[in-house]
Specification:
The chain has about 160 residues and is of the alpha+beta class. It has one domain (about 35-159): Glutaredoxin, CATH 3.40.30. The chain is about 45% helix and about 20% strand. The protein contains seven helices and six strands, in the order ααβααβββαββαα. It has a six-stranded mixed beta sheet with strand order 4-3-2-1-5-6, with helices on both faces. β3 and β4 form a beta hairpin. The radius of gyration is 24 Å and the shape is globular.
């Protein structure tokens, strides 16, 4: 009987030692992971409504249309009054309102939205709360995006 108790005791001690060891080991992120601190959308939360336009090198029409619309005064004022900011990733190079992002920030931005820089042209609207509100392809119009924002409860309270 005493050897059975000793075996049980040693078994429990070994299990407990394994559990403690597992809890104290550092958990490393996957090699391809980018730190959350590099995701530029994290800084925008509760501050702005980002739109992210991602276009491959072979098809930049969507980004050109959005930029052309923002050159018009009325559209630009509507954009600013809704607390919007433009992120673009063109052929893998990220920008925020025309200012270059680092490679890490661009990767984190694409990763957060589950997009590829060489994928189809895509526009993503991110709300003030940081969640994705709209994902559209090449045929989206900026006025459609503004209309979606105007229907949001938070925007209606801001007016």
């Amino acid at each position: 009987m005493p050897s059975t108790c000793l075996s049980l005791y040693l078994g429990r001690v070994a299990w407990l030692a394994c559990a403690i060891c597992a809890l104290t080991l550092p958990i490393a992120p996957p090699a391809h992971a980018v730190p959350l601190a590099e995701n530029p959308l994290a800084a925008e939360r509760w501050q702005t409504r980002p739109i992210v336009v991602v276009v491959p090198a072979s098809d930049r029409a969507l980004l050109r249309r959005i930029e052309a619309a923002l050159e018009r005064t009325a559209t630009r004022e509507a954009f600013v009054s809704r607390k919007m900011v433009l992120y673009s990733v063109e052929a893998g190079e990220g920008r925020r309102s025309g200012v270059a992002l680092t490679t890490g920030q661009t990767r984190a931005l694409l990763g957060a939205l589950k997009l590829e820089s060489d994928g189809p042209p895509t526009l993503v609207l991110v709300g003030l709360d940081g969640s994705v509100k709209m994902v559209k392809g090449n045929d989206v119009d900026l006025h459609e995006v503004l209309a979606v924002i105007d229907r949001m409860p938070m925007r209606q309270r801001q007016r």
